[in-house]
């Protein structure tokens, strides 16, 4: 049944994939057919090795013979090579941020698991006991729709900082960072200048919150990749179409909408 369902999904997606390659699948529609479905990418893009049984979860998870949790890395039934790269860490530019320290491993928690595909080095389509033998690489696999620099990270100094305690940021930037007990923003008023969100007066700004709290997406208090991204594409916010191109509705697997910077304003008061 799963194989049949996936086959129908892939066939239906083939017709529109080229025109919507960068848009991905709709938010909240699950992993099947999304950019986190390597078998689907192998069928549509053609440069990834599909799983012999058309499985979706197997590239990251397995019920048996999974990798053990080593080095403090949480590996939930993990079935993929864990990235061992040491990336250039983020350096605070604002003086007020300097007291905020990073974990000894800035890829603490699920971030290192994310790097198992997104470090631009570790094979994306390898899994199982021989994980890591695959030849397809994160950024040079020949899939033209996937080699954008935004799809792999090889330098943490040019990304939003991760691996620091959220409470440290709250303590050092009072009035500029919201308490983690706040909900993530799901949607905000229209994009007209008169209706822009007033983050200094959230109760009167018309902000509509989602069901996830910031504290729910921290790892032991640390901000990680999964603090912004819902990797299973299950609960992430429905993004609005682009104003300039209504047919383009990108799915970045994020908890809050991109529209009106809802994702940014979930934590930042600006």
General description of the model:
The N terminus is likely disordered. It is built from 5 helices and 2 strands. Helix content is 16%, strand content 4%. A two-stranded antiparallel ribbon has the order 1-2. The chain is mainly alpha-helical.
Give a brief outline of the structure.
With 270 residues, this protein is mainly α. It has helices at 2-17, 38-44, 111-118, 166-172, 262-265, and strands at 183-187, 208-213. Mean pLDDT is 79; it is low at 1-23, 133-138 and 140-145.
Rounded to an integer in angstroms, the radius of gyration calculated over CA atoms is 19 Å
What share of residues is helical? Answer: 10-25%
Approximate strand percentage: under 5%
Q: Give the low-confidence spans.
A: 1-23, 133-138, 140-145
How are the strands of the biggest sheet laid out side by side?
Answer: 1-2
Characterize the main sheet.
2 strands, antiparallel
CA-based shape: globular
Number of helices: 5
How far apart are the termini? Answer: 49 Å
**Strand-and-helix sequence, N→C?**
HHHHEEH
Report the mean per-residue pLDDT as an integer: 79
Q: Would you tell me the structural class of the helices and strands? A: mainly alpha
How many beta-strand elements?
Answer: 2
């Amino acid at each position: 049944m799963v194989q049949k369902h996936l086959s129908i999904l892939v066939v239906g997606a083939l017709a529109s994939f080229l025109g919507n390659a960068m848009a991905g699948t709709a938010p909240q529609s699950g992993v099947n057919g999304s950019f986190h479905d390597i078998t689907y990418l192998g069928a549509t893009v053609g440069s990834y090795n599909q799983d012999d049984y058309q499985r979706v979860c197997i590239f990251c998870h397995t019920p048996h013979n999974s990798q053990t949790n080593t080095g403090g890395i949480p590996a939930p039934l993990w079935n993929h090579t864990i990235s061992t790269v040491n990336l250039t860490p983020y350096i605070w530019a604002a003086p007020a941020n300097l007291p905020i320290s990073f974990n000894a491993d800035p890829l603490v928690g699920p971030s290192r698991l994310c790097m198992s595909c997104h470090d631009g080095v570790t094979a994306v389509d390898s899994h199982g006991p021989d994980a890591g033998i695959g030849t397809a690489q994160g950024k040079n696999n020949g899939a033209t729709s996937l080699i954008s620099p935004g799809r792999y990270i090889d330098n943490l100094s040019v990304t939003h900082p991760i691996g620091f305690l959220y409470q440290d940021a709250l303590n050092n930037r009072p009035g500029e960072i919201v308490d983690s007990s706040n909900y993530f923003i799901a949607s905000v008023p229209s994009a007209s200048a008169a209706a822009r969100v007033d983050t200094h007066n959230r109760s009167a700004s018309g902000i509509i919150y989602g069901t996830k709290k910031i504290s729910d997406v921290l790892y032991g208090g640390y901000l990680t990749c999964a603090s912004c991204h819902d990797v299973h594409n299950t609960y992430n916010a429905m993004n609005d179409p682009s104003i300039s191109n209504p047919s383009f509705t990108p799915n970045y697997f994020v908890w809050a909408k991109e529209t009106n910077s809802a994702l940014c304003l979930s934590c930042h008061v600006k």
